[in-house]
Design goal:
This protein is mainly α. Helices cover 57% and strands 0% of the residues. The protein has a single domain, classed as Cytochrome Bc1 Complex, Chain D, domain 2 (Orthogonal Bundle). The termini are far apart.
């Protein structure tokens, strides 16, 4: 029981160390999402999100314009749909073939490498945060 309590306290402390600096820096979520987008998505989707990244011409399936998702979904941004596509760990039939990397697996592997072994339960929280920052950023870049 003590071990569990210590693990929970350590996890809470770790999550505080991870998330508090982002808020303390007063960096808007859009900026965090943009950094993640540039690092993980821009090579294919372009820095503007319009599908014109430097690798776009090399792909069999052209990356979509991410700035028009709200328009293509009847004026409502498809938050959970975008989240599931980015995560990629659950197949989504309407998305078609899986041309995009499965970011959920990649982010989880990175988190497990970076976290101390007894605290690897926090890996999914880090994955969720990275994916959410992307979803919020993609929502932020929507054109009217």
């Amino acid at each position: 029981m003590r071990t569990r309590a210590r693990a929970i306290a350590a996890l809470a402390g770790l999550l505080t160390l991870i998330f508090v600096p982002a808020f303390a820096a007063e960096e808007p979520i859009e900026e965090l999402g943009k950094q993640e987008f540039v690092r993980s998505c821009a090579a294919c989707h372009g820095e503007s999100g319009k599908g014109d990244g430097m690798l776009a011409d090399m792909l069999v399936v052209a990356p979509p314009d991410l700035t028009s998702l709200r328009k293509r979904h009847g004026g409502k941004f498809p938050t959970s749909w975008v989240y599931r596509i980015i995560d990629g760990r659950n197949e989504i039939r309407p998305h078609g073939s899986r041309e995009m990397p499965i970011w959920g697996d990649r982010y989880r592997a990175e988190a497990l490498r970076e976290l101390p072994l007894p605290l690897n339960v926090g890996a999914d929280a880090l994955v969720h945060g990275r994916i959410l920052s992307l979803v919020f950023y993609i929502d932020f870049i929507q054109e009217e």
